[in-house]
Amino acid sequence: MVGMKIVDKFITLEELKKMAEGMFGNLVKAVVDVEKEVMVVGGELHSDEEKLLLENGSCQNNLWGINIYPEKQEDDFVEFDSVINLRPSQNNYSRFVEDEKIRNKILKIIEKLIKK
User: Fold this and answer.
1) Cβ atoms within 10 A of the Cβ of 75, count?
2) How far apart are CA 56 and CA 64, in angstroms?
3) Strand 114-115 to strand 11-12: parallel, antiparallel, or no bridges (unpaired)?
């Protein structure tokens, strides 16, 4: 395992591909802070990444779990699926990020942080 990494400036697509190969083969788990516009990648569980962000001052309500597929394109590049997204208190009743505005914000952050 390469280890978890807080991405606040950028990460290359090649780095993500190496992380994927070292972990799950085709994906990298990530947690995005939609307020601070940072993310953590490379954890075995989204909850591990979430914990790291919380320890670094993030607020729970701003953290969303996703999966990144470095070898895929367009709509298949990001999957909005994580147990940490189950949040009835924020009207999110599934593992999917149900709010389109939040999904769009996540995509903009991903676009800014990943150099292709």
Assistant:
1) 8
2) 15
3) parallel
pTM score, whole prediction: 0.95
Residue 66 pLDDT: 98
pLDDT more than 70, % of the chain: 98
Cα-only R_g, the chain: 13
- Residue whose C-alpha is closest to residue 11's, from 33, 36, 34, 28: 28
pLDDT band at 116 (very low <50, low <70, confident <90, very high): confident
CB 25: neighbour CB atoms within 10 A? 8
Q: What is the phi/psi pair of residue 90, to 5°?
A: -110, 20
Separation in Å, CA 94 to CA 1, 38, 52, 86, 87: 29, 23, 23, 5, 8
Please say whether the beta carbons of 69 and 26 come within 8 A: yes
Distance (Å, whole) CA 102 – CA 48: 21
The closest alpha carbon to 36, from 3, 6, 15, belongs to 6
Please tell me whether residue 80 adopts helix, strand or coil conformation: coil
